[in-house]
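Reply to dn_fold:

You asked what the input looked like. This is it:
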Amino acid sequence: MHRRLAVLSRVLLLAAPNRGAWIAGTAAGSAAKILENMEIGHNVLHGQWDWMNDPQIHSTTWDWDTASTSEAWKHSHNYVHHTYTNIRGKDKDLGYEIMRIDPDQKWHPVYLGQPIYNLLLMAFFEWGVALHDLDLDAIRKGEKPMDEVRHELKGIAGKAKSQVVKDYIAWPAVSAAANVAGSLAISAVTGKLKKKQRSKAIADAAEAGRKAFKSTATANFTSNIVRNFWSNAIIFCGHFPDQTYVFSQEEVVDESRGAWYVRQLAGAANIDGNPMFHIASGNLSFQVEHHLFPDMPSSRYAEIAPRVKDVCERYGLPYNTGPFFQQWSMVQKTILRLAFPGGEHKPKPGPYVPEKA
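and this is what came back:
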């Protein structure tokens, strides 16, 4: 489906100067990029499909259409985030090192700007994540070797080059060439390529190519922005709504394996939705199940969710979930409030109680 949507987008954008084709091509491109990042790339890189022993669909060989290199992302996300989930000072994904999302994080005047750079992070999320993977705090403290930093910067530059060439040069050029050829073909059929009208026909063809190049590049840029907004929203809704717990380093000293599972459970939140929504979210709408079993195939999360709820009910544990707009609005309110000094902890949910039939 991802490949079909990508091909459909490219075909539609051959007629990108047409408004209807531009909207349809952009929508198909956005959907393709979301599927590629969320349901495919994220989950393949977690090793969820390594059991197939497919040399192409494997966490050691997969590369994805985003600014982060697979190597750096697997370290910062698979290892650091999933090991130290929601531990202040250990989990680098807790506010992505640029935002205050917990009242116990020490306030600094730089946080006054977080509502603004929150919007920028939404729009350019893939680039924010790529820079985040560098671990800027470790670089500032001199804890990260510069050879490693240069290696990772080279990787990011390579990913940037790939995206720029593909989305803003190569495919726009294909659309431009198709429109130039089409315009010249029409001129030939109508006799406009005869000597007296040849210059105007060529000029018209060049203008058609220019418009097609610009429209296709704009469509691809929009698709990238849509993908970034969506992935940002899903990830933030899974980690930062009011229901989730944040932990101090003292609380997890000598943490048992069972306590690790409880921390994963309490530090994540699900998003309610239908099967199509779950696929579009990469099944990260089951963030609780994902954090409990990050290398389980994502298509199984809906299947095990009732069993997780049953454990929560029997042992008096919370099971955090809610509608998308409820979760998203809570996150945005937190980001806005904690840009200023102070702030209070929101009440946390109690033990899971199943809904009555």
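Residues 2-65+113-226 form one domain.
Hope that clears it up.
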